[in-house]
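USER: Please consider what follows.
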Amino acid sequence: MDLTLGELAASLGGELSDPTVSERRILAIRSLASAGENDVSFFRGDPRYLAQARETRAAAIVCDARIEGATRPLVLVEDAGLAVSFLLAAVRDLDNPPPPPGIHPKAHVDESAEIGPGVSIGPCAVIEAQAKVGARSRISAGAFVGRGTVLGEDCHLHPGAVVLHHCTLGARVILWSGAVIGRDGFGFLQREGRHLRIPQVGGVVLGDDVEVGSWSSVDRGAVDPTVVGEGVKIDSHCHVAHNCKVGEHSLLIGYARMGGSATLGKNVILAQEAAIGERRTAGDGAVLASGARALYKDVGAGEMVLGFHARPFTH
């Protein structure tokens, strides 16, 4: 990063509180506590950081309201959180530019696979027969796309991410390293003291803008697919079992897990280490607080539960 405060304010659609410093150059974005005179920082209104906003040495503070007691210039924007996300994305892309389109000579791409324009495929990545990879997608080193699987446009499989056979990913899906999509669901018949696997052929469907963290898994359905709706974000170390349905824009946070055929409505939150049991349902907007276990009863729409066994939250 190397631009003036005036250029920064213009790029964010903001206003500089002190126009006389518009030519001051900034080189990095830093926290309020660590920023120096050539850095920009940000304040999103959290009172826990108000003292730091007043004491920071940053060249300027990006914020969406004036800060009482601040001594540094402000870049006033409509939405500080959104502006900072835009700025961080620009820094990320400068530090880690996307690879050029093309197939690395050490990648394996089956001749029957369909590769869209602008796709980059890294070393030791594997694209199996009849797979389709949408335009501008990035398949990083060692990632795997199984037979007949379809990826939408602008997907990104980080190194070592795995999508097994006959799964469907929408546009802009992100899979972090170690994520596994399409593992067989945990289905067995008990016969004569033995566990006989039930083949799982239903696949997985991930909607547009889904993100799956490292070491998380989404199992394929037995007959119908496991479905994860648009905009769902799954943290690392989470598990979605076979035949689950996850409604649009829901969140699964570290170590959250779902039993087989469980259903989440839209905008549901499974907080850290929360769990919903086999065939249980959580309605739209429900929240399972950290460590909550809804294993034997459904959770109603808009309800917040906590504990084990999960019970409604009361003030």
